Amino acid sequence: MTTTEKHLPGACGNVRSTVHIERPLDADSDIDQKTIRGTKPTHSMRQVGLPPVLLLASRPESAGVARTFVREYVGHHAPRASEDHVETVVLVTCELVTNSIRYGTEPGDLVRVVIDVDDSRTRVEVHDPVRRRPRARPESSERDRGRGLLILDSLCAGRWGVKEIPLGKAVWAEVKARR
Q: Closest Cα to residue 111, out of 80, 66, 70?
């Protein structure tokens, strides 16, 4: 097994990703094949899923990358999650990333998406380098934007917020698992 650690410094803090690569034993292996016959493996030989952190450039197309990442992450780590749950998490993530890029970054900044999944909920955090907290805008039929926080209130009532982090803020939301 080979272990590789990558440290990715960025505007949103350091990200550490550890990748474990395991290769099957073959005839050219240094290990005596007689030694391993009759023994059971103590670990899986399959690759571990996506890491829970994604760094994005502060560009509008990054919201699409975040949607794909979250859909794949939840699909891997919560394979029994309903399609409705996955699509709600994708929509919440897209809103958080879009708001972060639009109001929490400048060109050249990075946005960090952190996801955590368990049987009861999926939590998404989006970190950006601006400390200014998001605020709801008055409803308007003249604007085609400014509804992100209303969507969060609707999909994650009482389960979203903002916290300060060393290099900015993290806006988080939790989507309850549907049973």
A: 66
Cβ within 8 Å of residue 174, ≥6 positions away: 121, 122, 123, 124, 156, 159, 160
Considering only CA atoms, which of 102, 155, 167, 79 is closest in space to residue 124?
A: 155
CATH of domain 53-176: 3.30.565.10
Cβ proximity of 11 and 22 under 8 Å:
no
Domain boundaries, the chain: 2-36, 53-176
Side chain identity, residue 168:
G
Poorest-confidence range of 16-25, 48-57, 68-77, 114-123?
Answer: 16-25
Helices (H) and strands (E) in the chain, counts: 4, 7
Of 125, 91, 115, 118, the closest CA to residue 176 belongs to 118
pLDDT at 149 exceeding the cut of 70: yes
